[in-house]
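Reviewers of the previous submission asked for a worked example of the structure-prediction workflow described in the proposal, so we include one complete record here. The input consisted solely of the amino acid sequence. No template or homolog information was supplied to the procedure at any stage.
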Amino acid sequence: MKKTRILALVFAVVIAAVMAFSFKVPAKAEEGGMLIATQEQEEPAADNAIGTKAIAAAVVVALAAAAGALAMGLAVAKSTESMARQPEVAGQINSSMMLGMVFIETAIIYALIVAILIIFVL
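From that input alone, the workflow returned the following structure tokens.
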């Protein structure tokens, strides 16, 4: 249990670091006490927006895939353990496990669709 918490904490810190470094503030030229954005500085801002979208999409898919993989692993482990304890109901356990796997995979596919929407719509 402690190992899982430590792994989750490390994962959260890495994601926070990536998100913190992905946002860059464009430099602005000062003229007469006023901030003026030049043409050269507007192009990196557009690139920064595209990069931020890509990072957001990657985080969405990575979190969903990691959570789905953990859930599937736990489901398979528990169903195998249940089948070993009660072999006479192995068929029912297997069909219930497969139905659960379908729901987990559907959630991952929804996350992929959200990532695609982030990239192309926003």
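The chain has one domain: 2-120. We consider this example representative of the routine output the project will generate in years two and three.
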